[in-house]
Amino acid sequence: MRKIAYLTSAILVAMSISFASVAKLPDLTPAAKEAADLAKAKTAHGDKKAAFLLCNAQNKVAKTYAVKDKVVATPDCVDPGEFKAPEVAAAPVTPKPAEVANAPVKPAEAPKK
Predict the structure, then answer these.
(1) What DSSP string runs through 47-111?
(2) In the structure, what pLDDT confidence band is assigned to residue 72 with cuts at 50, 70 and 90?
(3) Backbone phi and psi for residue 104, each to the nearest 5 degrees, phi listed first
(4) Residue 102 above 70 pLDDT?
(5) pLDDT at 37
(6) Of residues 76, 85, 88, the one with CA closest to residue 45
(7) What SS3 state is found at 42?
(8) Burial (0-12, 13-18, 19+ Cβ within 10 Å), 16
(9) Over 60: is that where the pLDDT of 108 sits?
(10) Residue 83, exposed/middle/buried by CB under 10 A (0-12, 13-18, 19+)?
(11) Which of 31, 19, 1 is nearest to 11 (CA)?
């Protein structure tokens, strides 16, 4: 009887956790989006830098173990340089629905004859 009670409670806890994880998260703020874009750019630059260092290491090993009679073609390694933060484009400002609803209304002009 206790096993059934423990199993039932474990299933209920697991279901409540799974339902909580399905909840929708709110949209990111502009500052959070900028931070995420910066982190993404830093990661991409780090990947390029690691690929450059790997390319250099592979070329060094290929030259060390190359046979004298056989020429080994090695690819050119491209140095990504220093990290530069991406330029942030200004988002167009759109009025909120509440601002549009409270905006003063101009009276219509009479047609000219």
Answers:
(1) HHHHHHHHHHHHHHHHHHH--TTSPPP-PPP----S--PPPPPPPPP---HHHHHTSPPPPPPPP
(2) confident
(3) -65, 145
(4) no
(5) 93
(6) 85
(7) helix
(8) exposed
(9) yes
(10) middle
(11) 19
Non-local CB neighbours of 88 within 8 Å, separated by 6+ positions: 34, 37
How far does CA 16 lie from the centroid of its chain? 29
Instruction: Give the pLDDT score at 103.
Output: 65
Encoded tokens for 13: 């806890």
- The type of residue at 34 is E
**Could you tell me the residue ranges of all domains in the chain?**
2-84
Q: How far apart are CA 87 and CA 43, in angstroms?
A: 16
Residue type, 20: A
